[in-house]
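Action item from last week, closing it out:
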Amino acid sequence: MNDLKYDDRGLIPAVVQDRLTGQVRMVAWMNAESLERTLATGRATFFSRSRAALWLKGETSGHYLRVHSVYADCDADTLLVLADPDGPSCHTGRPACFFRSVAADGSVTDLESEASAFLEVLEGEISARARSTSEKSYTKSLLDAGAGKIGEKLREEAGELADAIANESDERVASEAGDLIYHLLVGLRARGVPLRRVIEVLAKRAGTSGHAEKAARGPKL
């Protein structure tokens, strides 16, 4: 703890980020004791300036932040907490605290969705298109066509990506990979499987031999 630079009140700002999606969930303050508890328990604990007391995030709501790792910035005066959130992180009940857009004149407007990394934004756009009409949305028409059509598109896009990897330019590889990822997200939306769940599976496999991981899988259902 001696390497960290606390302010004159003994506090340091902590930015909390979803370790899988990259979404910034909230910002709060820590002191040396709350940081020690966070690292010891694996649950984010902060310091309330208004109450002058420690507070465990989720103690009353059940919306804990399960801490995966903590980093300090280059000046050691700000912390980045990578966590798995159990439910909403904002006191308003929204998933994250950053949902207010700031205009050039400094005015602030509440938005329907929170600031997120691009793939999460794209996932949200696909969900929005699912509620539009088929005539106006290719994505909606694909969802309406069902799993068979979506599977057909996935196989088509995967084949085109494979061909591009073998024979075409880097630009074509990137383009075909983009097509495949988009249709993958459509397929996940059709099944109601969030992208975060897929990333979670990949994270669990990290550091494990591919052969060992496959051998440990259960039978397909």
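Closing note: The chain has two domains: 1-115, 118-213.
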